[in-house]
Each structure stands twice: as structure tokens, then as C-alpha cells.
Design a protein that fits this description.
Helix content is about 60%, strand content about 5%. By secondary structure, the protein is mostly helical. The relative contact order is 0.12.
Length: about 200
């Protein structure tokens, strides 16, 4: 298969499958062209076992895209949601460090937005779609920052560049894309985020 055929296959699974992870696990079980290295690297990038008991970034991402597939119908821009779910942590391989015995990935959302733009631009001509995906990635950590009143919160910038409700939807999929997540707890965080952004 050519790189474009592989991309279209991924796109089809993201938009049509009940559990896209099943097809993507099979597809990424063999070497792929270099264009897909940013996704392949997720398999070898570890995460904090406290926050991510499911393991590496790839494992987490597969759980997130399955969560997003359940909620595609809730999105104004389902294609952007699904690509953002797949690519939301694409910046972690470049930003993951061990600091004082803890695995961190500071600014992975900013690095990830840039990497996602480069990746998608190699296959898509729809600049609006690419922009929507990249801004969802860029701001997906705002749920944590806003709810915890952290100095990295940027509600004004987020509202200017993307849709808060779409960020919230991706954020819920992200929060639920881990082992032992509790839906009521995570929905509560997302609701607080939406309320704080509305002030």
C-alpha cells in the first residue's frame, strides 16, 4: 500500500468503525512508511503509571479513539474530533522526560499541534480541517489547567482559536481513555471546565 492508501484506510476506520483501535492495532503491527513514524513512536513512549496505568502512549491513544468513536455523533466536526483523538499526544515522544523520578511531557500539546499539522498537510488539502485538528490538540490540556486554576490556563486564547465544547468533548475522551476511569467523575471535571470558560 502507498502512504496515501494507508492514510485513507486510517481515516475510514476512524470515521466508520465502532472500535477503530482494532484495525489500527493490526495496521501498525508491521513496519509502515516513514510518514507514519510520529504515530509509530507512540508505542515506545512511556507514561506515568500513576496517571496512565494502561501503559505507553499508543495504548492510551487506542483507548481514546475508541471513546471518541462512541461520541462522534455529539461533535460539530466529527472528522476533526477523530483525527485529534488519534494525534492528541503525538508530541509526547519529543517531550517526555524523567524528572525527579517522575515521567513528564510538558508542552506536548504545543509540540503535538505542530507535528500534527506537518503530518496532516502531507495528505490533506482541507486547511480548515487541519486547523481544527491542530487547535484541538493545542488546547486539549486546558481542561486540567482551567479546572485546577493553573497559570498555564489560557481561556481567552482557546476561545479565540477553537470551540470550547469540542475541546471539552475531546477532553472527556482523553480522560476516559485510561484504565479504571470513572465516567461520572470525568464528566464532572469537564462540566466544571465548561462552566469556568463561560465566566
Amino acid at each position: 500500500m502507498t502512504s496515501t492508501e494507508i492514510f485513507r484506510q486510517i481515516e475510514r476506520h476512524l470515521m466508520e468503525d465502532v472500535q477503530p483501535s482494532q484495525a489500527l492495532e493490526e495496521l501498525f503491527d508491521r513496519p509502515l512508511p516513514p510518514e507514519f513514524a510520529p504515530l509509530w513512536r507512540l508505542k515506545t513512549t512511556e507514561q506515568s503509571p500513576v496517571h496512565h496505568p494502561e501503559g505507553n502512549v499508543w495504548n492510551h491513544t487506542m483507548l481514546v479513539i475508541d471513546q471518541a468513536a462512541k461520541r462522534r455523533g455529539e461533535s460539530k466536526y466529527p472528522e476533526a474530533l477523530m483525527w485529534a483523538a488519534l494525534l492528541h499526544d503525538i508530541g509526547k515522544p519529543d517531550t517526555t522526560r524523567v524528572r525527579r523520578g517522575k515521567i513528564t511531557s510538558y508542552n506536548h500539546e504545543k509540540v503535538g499541534a505542530s507535528l500534527a499539522r506537518r503530518f496532516l498537510s502531507g495528505f490533506l488539502t482541507d486547511k480548515m480541517l487541519i486547523e481544527r485538528v491542530c487547535m484541538l490538540i493545542r488546547y486539549h490540556m486546558q481542561i486540567l489547567f482551567v479546572v485546577r486554576d493553573l497559570p498555564f490556563a489560557d481561556v481567552k486564547g482557546m476561545k479565540k482559536r477553537t470551540d470550547v465544547e469540542e475541546v471539552a468533548l475531546l477532553g472527556l475522551c482523553d480522560l476516559m481513555g485510561r484504565l479504571h476511569s470513572n465516567l461520572a467523575t470525568e464528566e464532572g471535571k469537564v462540566q466544571r471546565f465548561i462552566e469556568k470558560c463561560g465566566r
